[in-house]
Amino acid sequence: MIYRTPEYCRHFRCIAGECRDSCCKGWEIDIDSDTYDYYMTVGGDFGERLRKNIQDGSFLLTEDERCPFLNRQGLCDIYTELGEDRLCQICSDHPRYFEWFGVFKEGGVGLCCEAAARLILSSPFSLCEEDIPYESASGEYDEELLSLLLEVRGEIFNVLNDGTIPLGEALCRILDIAENAQQYIDTPTEEVPKTGGEDALSDIFACLEELEPIDDHWLPYIRSCKGKLKNAPAADSAHLPYLRRIALYLIFRYLLKSVYDGEVLGYAKFAAFSVIVISSLYRCKASEGVCGFEECADIAKDYSKEVEYSDENMAQLLEILGSEPFLSCDALKELLRELF
Length: 340
Known about the structure:
Elements: E1 2-6, H1 33-39, H2 44-52, E2 54-55, E3 58-59, H3 77-82, H4 89-93, E4 96-101, E5 104-109, H5 114-122, E6 127-131, H6 143-161, H7 167-185, H8 197-210, H9 218-228, H10 240-254, H11 258-261, H12 264-288, H13 293-307, H14 311-321, H15 329-339
Parallel strand pairs: 1-5
Antiparallel strand pairs: 1-6, 2-3, 4-5
GO molecular function, one term: methyltransferase activity
GO biological process, one term: methylation
Organism: Ruminococcus flavefaciens
């Protein structure tokens, strides 16, 4: 089986105790069945501690929503006591993600991780492949549709990687490419009427307010930024490479999922929507002072955590992207050209 991943993933390393937003805080941590069975057999004081802190197949978080095995140095006691190979599957994989498409597999590192966000924003996008003979084919899909989607994605990659095409225009082109592919897959449907650009940006932030927050600080932050949009400075040219790489990350991670649900345009819209939101958050941050690389990476990480890493929020947003006038292709393109 062929495994395909962005080249920068080879350089990913967990920063462990140096992480300011640990994945061991604030998340429910489910334990896979094989690891659970092993934890039930661990002897001694540590085995007793393991069993005391597991309930219904998950770790019992502390009052401040920390994993009970995350020590004050930001390190994992399971890792230090039992070894890396004894971590549960989700702890071993995160922030890595994987997708299987029959005879090939794809994967990467998720933007919601602090170290991964820095890597994604700072690294040129290219793919590498390796053979993994120990894995077998899995999943069922329409081979003709997958072939079409690979062509579509390749065309989108070419557009986004072409630095001579301004970012706003590049994103408009990927919406056109995805819309044409969607019409080929489905019976064409009439686009709902668009709304004006200024109203559309405010409406986009209103969408974020409707999603279920993961962090208590997210909604107040989004509402605060929404109030600053009209007076925020124009997009900083220094941010454009970061935004382009975020778009590439999202297209790579999500577009091929449409082989299962047919939502190629929805995933392309999600990439454009995300760039609009993250760029607007950069602008709001710049209006308060410095918005350099570290601030840009943190903002992208927080957005990913709140939107990408909630199945409910992703499903709700994809539904909204397919139905709201201010998120029609024409409205998004108008807004992209206005912003960039």
